[in-house]
Design a protein that fits this description.
Number of helices: 6
Shape: globular
Radius of gyration: 26 Å
CATH superfamily: TonB-dependent receptor, beta-barrel domain
Low-confidence stretches: 1-41, 278-284
Number of strands: 40
Structural class: mainly beta
Distance between the termini: 35 Å
CATH architecture: Beta Barrel
Largest sheet: 22 strands, antiparallel, barrel
């Protein structure tokens, strides 16, 4: 396959940057000082609890004071995990289920409802929404970033819809990248081993007058995995190339401007899947095997451009205006289908400290989603072009009831969309800090997930059922074609959430965080078959359609606990445990044959123990054990234990080398099942080395 445009641009960027770095190094008058990498063990328990987060209130708030179940992955957490992808880094978050489906596909969710197309978890990067309106989820294979550029990842376990809107139902992941001022100089990073290889280059420079620029490029490749229980390669290798830039400018301390963007292109392989033979290229096959095997490869590409302007009127008032244009494209060449989605988004926010009792944040937004698809008989969208306009308004007031003791937070998001029209999503949060070391909180929230385009517009020929008794099909004994079709009358899924929590500093070296929840879901996604009609013959097939419907409901409840123990100045232990129970049911009004979708897909029990040990000032050793309970999938996923390890050595001049081992306890295991296009493969034992050089 010829190199993509993004790959060529990446190579050009890499060449020009290397030439620039060489010139700068020759012109330098003295050897640079060794760069000191941050270390988690440098931070005390108290300092970690004082970290500012923004995802719950949209204003900087100390972690210990946040009235929500939130977990923060710092840049050092990410670095020491050895992760080269965002889903790998998210595995350490309590209550988060991260499962590798194949070599490039992931199932990522929290507190239930997981799949490759998980649709109740909102993911943002620097305020830009990463989900696609096609299925309300994230294509994780195209979110391949330089992990060294991430400042922190804030994960809200539970609803965040009152600030972030529809689809922030059972969680929010907010990925925040580093300011350009903190990424000056050059960085070269890379990874290579038994299953992966990647390389990245970043260069930051000051432009004068408090203006800074960085450019970067990254290329990654992941090898094929095996079909479960075999040595057969699955064809799920992938590659992605990305280039980007960011400019930060500070105007006299009152105004700050950021402009950033990137472009990417790649390919994502997948195991072959059996498709009905109704393609325009091939005549119907009315004898065994009634279908054909096709690869499930796709070719993602896209780019975005975003601007952010922050203005401070005073110490008590500031505004933020953010605008971005995002384009995503994906081609499924084997079945002659593709789509292109353009998103134009405007978001305004005003933070104002009204008085000693009230901190108000309010804002408004508008989003335009435009879709253009190339349809085939196997996969089509009706209509093949669509434009949605979404408008929103939100307000949230943090009310101090008793200084340093009681706080009440009230807020709501109001949205208008073209499908379900007006949606409102209120929340109330109460926090109590009886003493400085302990904080208790509780909340009640209402969230909705609006219907996505697949649920309304999809036509997907999924399966062929041979004639009864086998043999050649005929008019009296036809082949049945199973097809999923969209439903224009879909309603929003609704959830009423109750959350409770306790966060404590139990000593100078010990902290704990406990969260409990109960969620009541209504109108959740189901599939309802049409009545078989012998007159409905399509290309020689008897057509059996399944329409997306809203006959499901569920109760999801459980809790998470995490403990951080700084055993010594150079050794830290982190332990987490989570339990999630899901109870699905169908409405009494559901027609016969209606099935529950996303019933299962989430383990009841998960546990993790992470040992972070600084053996010497230059050597770190990390050991990470995790347990994932078995759960119902297609096929069922068995419980497994796994162990990861990382040994890192720091050298002078900002150089670090590390050896990482993944899945060391088993040769291979399966982490998820099959759904629509995804065919599960085996997660395999692997070893790879990483390099990071700041200069």
């Amino acid at each position: 396959m010829p190199l993509s445009k993004a790959a060529c641009l990446f190579k050009l960027c890499l060449t020009l940057t290397v030439i620039s770095l060489t010139h700068l190094s020759l012109a330098a008058n003295q050897e640079p000082e060794p760069a000191k990498l941050p270390d988690l063990t440098d931070l005390s328990v108290e300092a970690l609890l004082e970290l500012d987060v923004t995802s719950v209130t949209k204003t900087p708030t100390g972690l210990k004071d946040v009235p929500a179940a939130i977990y923060v992955l710092t840049s050092d957490d990410i670095h020491r995990s050895g992760a080269t992808t965002i889903p790998e880094a998210l595995r350490v978050v309590p209550g988060m289920h991260v499962a590798r489906i194949d070599g490039n596909k992931w199932a990522v969710s929290t507190r239930g409802f997981n799949s490759q197309y998980a649709n109740k978890l909102l993911v943002l990067m620097d305020g830009r929404i990463l989900y696609t309106p096609m299925f309300s989820g994230v294509w994780w294979d195209q979110e391949d970033v330089m992990m060294e550029d991430i400042e922190r990842i804030e994960v809200i376990r539970g609803p965040g819809a009152s600030l972030w809107g529809a689809n922030a139902v059972n969680g929010v992941i907010n990925i925040i990248t580093k300011k350009v001022k903190n990424t000056q100089g050059a960085l070269i990073s890379g990874a290579g081993g038994s299953m992966r290889k990647s390389g990245g280059l970043r260069y930051g420079v000051g432009l004068g007058n408090q203006a800074y620029l960085k450019v970067y490029g990254r290329h990654s490749e992941y090898d094929q995995t095996h079909l479960p229980g075999t040595d057969t390669q699955a064809g799920d290798d992938s590659r992605l190339s990305k280039i980007g830039f960011r400019v930060d400018k500070d105007f006299s301390g009152t105004d700050k401007l950021t402009l950033q963007g990137d472009a990417f292109s790649g390919s994502s392989g997948g195991a072959g899947q059996q498709f009905p033979t109704v393609s325009a290229k091939l005549a119907p096959v009315l004898s065994p095997p009634y279908s054909r095997w096709l690869p499930t490869d796709s070719e993602p590409s896209g780019h975005y451009l975003m601007g952010r302007w922050e203005h401070g009127y005073s110490n008590d008032s500031s505004t933020v205006l953010r605008m971005y244009w995002n384009r995503n494209e994906r081609k499924f060449t084997a079945i002659d289908s593709s789509y292109q989605i353009d998103t134009l988004d405007f978001d305004f926010q005003h933070n104002v400290h009204l008085d000693e009792e009230h901190n108000l944040v309010w804002g408004a937004g508008a989003r335009l989603n435009y879709n253009d698809t190339q349809n085939s008989l196997d996969l089509s969208w009706l209509p093949n072009q669509r434009q949605d306009q979404i408008y929103s308004l939100f307000a949230q007031d943090e009310i101090t009831l008793v200084p340093a003791r009681w706080k009440l937070t009230l807020g709501s998001k109001f949205e208008h969309n073209p499908v379900t029209q007006f949606e409102w999503q209120p929340t109330a949060r109460l926090s109590w800090t009886p003493v400085k070391q302990h904080a208790f909180w509780a909340s009640v929230s209402r969230s909705v997930r609006t219907p996505n385009w697949a649920e309304q517009d999809l036509n997907y020929n999924k399966q062929v059922i041979p004639p009864a008794g086998g043999g050649v099909a005929g008019p009296a004994n036809p082949v049945t074609l199973i097809s999923f079709v969209g439903n224009k009358a879909m309603q929003s899924e609704k959830m009423l959430a109750y959350d409770w929590g306790w966060r404590a500093q139990l000593g100078p070296r010990l902290s704990a965080d406990v969260a409990l929840y109960y969620y009541d879901y209504h109108n959740i996604l189901s599939g309802t078959p049409s009545a078989l009609d012998a007159s409905r013959i399509v290309s020689g097939y008897l057509l059996q359609t399944y329409a997306f419907t809203n006959y499901g409901s569920a109760d999801v409840y459980g809790g998470e606990a995490s403990v951080d123990w700084r055993v010594t100045d150079t050794w830290k232990l982190r332990a987490t445990y989570s339990q999630t129970e899901q109870r699905f049911r169908l409405s009494k009004l559901a027609p016969a044959g209606t099935g529950k979708l996303f019933d299962g897909g989430f383990p009841a029990h998960q546990a993790m123990l992470w040992s972070m040990h600084q053996l010497t000032p230059q050597i770190n050793v990390d050991l990470w054990w995790r347990y994932v309970d078995g759960f119902k999938e297609n096929p069922p996923v068995q419980a497994f234990h796994e162990l990861d390890a990382r040994l890192a050595r720091r050298f002078r001049h900002g150089l670090e080398l590390a050896l990482v081992g993944r899945n060391l306890l088993e040769t291979q295991h399966v982490e998820f099942g099959s759904y629509l296009f995804s065919i599960p493969t085996a997660a395999q034992r692997e070893v790879y080395a990483t390099l990071s050089w700041n200069f």
